[in-house]
Automatic annotation (TrEMBL):
Family matches, as InterPro entries: Calycin, Fatty_acid-bd, ILBP
Keywords, comma-separated and alphabetical: Cytoplasm, Lipid-binding, Transport
Encoding gene (name): Fabp1_1
The name this protein goes by in its record: Fatty acid-binding protein, liver
PROSITE patterns cross-referenced by the UniProt entry: FABP
PANTHER family: FATTY ACID BINDING PROTEIN
Organism of origin: Chunga burmeisteri
Function: Binds free fatty acids and their coenzyme A derivatives, bilirubin, and some other small molecules in the cytoplasm. Involved in intracellular lipid transport.
GO cellular component: cytoplasm
Location of the protein in the cell: Cytoplasm
C-alpha cells in the first residue's frame, strides 16, 4: 500500500493540551488550532518524504524505513529517530519520550502521537 498523496486535516483531538505539553507558546497554539494543514507524502520503496504545511509554517522530513534519521518536531527541534513500517500501512517512530503512529486506511490517514498519558490524534483525508 502506497502512502503517496496529499492529505488535508479533517479533525484533531487534544491539540491544545498536547502542544502545551510540548512547550509551544500559547500564541502559536491559538494560531495553529484552526488551520487545516496539508500533508504531502512521497513514498519511493522504503524512502519517504513528508511535507506538512500549516499556514506559513512548512515542515520537511525525509527518512528511510529502519535507518536512523533526523526528524523535525512540531517545536522545530531536530531529533534522531528510526521509523519502522508495521504491516503495510503503519509507520511507527519513537523519539525522546514521544511515540508517533501514522496509519493509512484507504484515503484516510490517522496520525496519533503519545507522550506519557497524553494522546494527540489527527485525521486527514486524501485530496
Amino acid at each position: 500500500m502506497s502512502f503517496t498523496g496529499k492529505y488535508e486535516l479533517q479533525s484533531q483531538e487534544n491539540f491544545e493540551p498536547f502542544m502545551k505539553a510540548l512547550g509551544l507558546p500559547d500564541d502559536q497554539i491559538q494560531k495553529g488550532k484552526d488551520i487545516k494543514s496539508i500533508s504531502e507524502i512521497v513514498q519511493d520503496g522504503n524512502k519517504f518524504k513528508i511535507t506538512v504545511t500549516t499556514g506559513s509554517k512548512v515542515m520537511h522530513n525525509e527518512f528511510t524505513i529502519g535507518e536512523e534519521c533526523e526528524i523535525e518536531t512540531l517545536t522545530g527541534e531536530k531529533i534522531k529517530a528510526i521509523v519502522q513500517l508495521e504491516g503495510n500501512n503503519r509507520l511507527v517512530a519513537n523519539m525522546k519520550g514521544l511515540k508517533s503512529v501514522t496509519e493509512l486506511n484507504g484515503d484516510t490517514i490517522t496520525h496519533t502521537m503519545t507522550m506519557g498519558d497524553l494522546t494527540y490524534k489527527r485525521i486527514s483525508k486524501r485530496i
